[in-house]
Amino acid sequence: MSQPGAEPVLLTALRGMPFFEQRFLKPICASSSSADAQMALLLFTSALFKHVPDLNKKIEIAQKASHRIVREWTTCPSPADVRRLVGESILQSADLTFQTLFEIAKRFIAFPPRSTSEANEWKYQLAYSAIRSVPREMFHAMDLEQWSEAVTKVVMGDITWKTYLPPDNQSVAQVKRNFSSILLNENHDG
């Protein structure tokens, strides 16, 4: 479970929205194995931030998502909408959007990273993991909405992160052999 801080920020914004219980709390409780509503809420919100290692970043992401909920929603968003908002906020904290990451992914397919250090960058790992989460032929026909769902699943940890391994650029040294000397040695042995 993540450290306290981000969860209360997000839950405060959600609790202040009309229809919180019907649109958010009941679905969370219905999908949770916990009988306690507070525990179900805590488990859900903790899971949203479990892949963000820095507590300050978690709070910043929760604040961004909370501000968007208050500004853009007239009623409480559903759990799926909250996941997407937190996913978008995680991308924003890395100066990315779903659109820019989609463009990175398209470039990734056309021109994959050539070095391991470049392939290990967070944005390339995220793009590669999202690319690998959908069938190749589907990726080329995806719209932004489908892409954002795939990225959100990766960011939220529903799909395992994958790291692209660039091909080794070192060429294999060619060894020149004198096959006539091998044949001559065999003829002398027999």
Mean pLDDT: 86
Low-confidence stretches: none
Integer-rounded radius of gyration: 25 Å
- Give a count of the beta strands, DSSP E runs of length 2 or more: 0
Percent range for β-strand residues: under 5%
Separation of the first and last Cα atoms: 74 Å
Summing up helix and strand content along with how strands pair, one would put the structural category as mainly alpha
Q: Number of domains in the coordinates? A: 2
Helix-strand pattern: HHHHHHHHHHH
Main beta sheet strand tally, sense and closure:
none
Looking at the structure, what is the overall shape? elongated
Residue share in helix: 55-70%
- Count of helical regions: 11
Structure, described:
It is built from eleven helices and no strands. The longest helix has 18 residues. Helix 1 runs parallel beside helix 4 and helix 8 crosses helix 10. It starts with 5 loop residues before the first helix and ends with a helix. It has 190 residues and is an all-alpha fold. The protein folds into two domains: 88 residues, no CATH class; 58 residues, no CATH class.
SSE topology sketch:
Blueprint: H1 6-15, H2 20-31, H3 37-48, H4 55-72, H5 79-93, H6 98-110, H7 116-119, H8 122-132, H9 136-141, H10 144-155, H11 179-189
Question: Any descriptors?
Answer:
65% helix; 2 domains; 190 residues
Short description:
This protein is an all-alpha fold and 190 residues long. The protein contains 11 helices and no strands. Helices cover 65% and strands 0% of the residues.
